[in-house]
Amino acid sequence: MNPIYAAMRATVFEEMSALARARGAINLGQGFPDGDGPADVRQEAARALIEGPNQYPPMMGLPALREAVARHYAEHQGLTLTSDQVLVTSGATEALAAAILAIVSPGDEVLIIEPAYDAYRPLIERAGGMVRTLTLSPPDWRIEVEAVDAAFARPPKAVIFNDPLNPAGRAFTHAEVALLAAACRRIGTIAICDEVWEHVRFDGRNHYPLIAEPGMAELAIKIGSAGKIFSMTGWKVGFVMAAPDLLEPIARAHQFLTFTTPPALQTAVAYGLGKPMRWFEEMRAGYQHSRDLLASLLADQGFVTLASDATYFLCVDLPASGFADDDRAFCLRAVEQAGVAAIPVSAFYGGESERRIVRLCFAKRDEVLVEAVRRLATLR
Ligand code: PMP
Ligand code: GLN
């Protein structure tokens, strides 16, 4: 293999979606809803596209969107960010890349929490950074004091904290967030907070942004994604929020990645972020229904699932469900023999990895979930 590609494996999402397309399978792999997002937000994008302007918007983002983001997080999370602390990016993926390019220099150690979203490691490594890991264990995926102490014994330059956690569906408690904040404060470790799933949480759970913890306003970089907020994963509008001294180098990196994001989408996201709280509650209730349906359909067929507090994902414990395959072998068998695509959770680990868990996306219509479980049951 060309050594340039060694750090950049093909993503499991593209691999599994390609298999799903080739086999005509139901795709419960890559996380995307089978609806098409709120009609009024799409209408606003269409209006803005026709009326314009369609030339380069400001590099930092449209003022209307930067203001809408600041207002949105004041309303939903009590944050007191001003619009000049907001940078608009082309999705959270670009936000992550810009933050990592801005912060990580060759030789810097960056802590990631495994299972970790698959973009983190390759971006850190291509920036010349060294990845260190703190590993969480199923079924609870809890952040424990001892593990944090061990991970920060030699403090890293930065930590990437994904809360709620993809693929585990874990929404961390305030105590866990505070524990991590205390560790960051010890020597000023920068926290890159990937909070793209912040709104998709269940059973009345709260979201505790790390940036709101004492002393973290100057150390945390908060990343959000309109794709997740509005169930339109193809939209690729993201936001970065940070204190001016942290945001500045990230904006510099953003200049050389995409420079801007399509203005019509920015206008529509600015509109959507002002939706009433009720809209967000209904969105959560809809996905909670889908989570509960998938969990009960799977339980009826003898599958054992882990708890899912948040995200679009529910994890299946293969050995507890009576399967001897490892996660990857199960996913290949599921797509080829049963016509259902899923994601092996081992793809979220670098080295020695968890191989017993498979992630299913439940952001689908009821009848799709019913048919998918009927098919998965044939794998026994
Ligand atoms: N971070 C996490 C944890 C994600 O799950 C995703 C996408 N599902 C992203 C980042 C990327 O978000 P975007 O599509 O806005 O680039
Ligand atoms: N974040 C999505 C997921 O976890 C996938 C995004 C992608 O395809 N890179 O399923």
Automatic annotation (TrEMBL):
Species annotation: Sphingomonas vulcanisoli
The keyword Nucleotide-binding belongs to this UniProt entry's keyword annotation: no
Record-level Gene Ontology MF annotations: transaminase activity
Residue intervals passing through the bilayer: none
Keyword ATP-binding annotated: no
Name the record gives this protein: Aspartate/methionine/tyrosine aminotransferase
Ranges of residues in domain Aminotransferase class I/classII large: 25-375
InterPro entries with a match to the protein in the record: Aminotransferase_I/II_large (IPR004839), Kynurenine-oxoglutarate_AT (IPR051326), PyrdxlP-dep_Trfase (IPR015424), PyrdxlP-dep_Trfase_major (IPR015421), PyrdxlP-dep_Trfase_small (IPR015422)
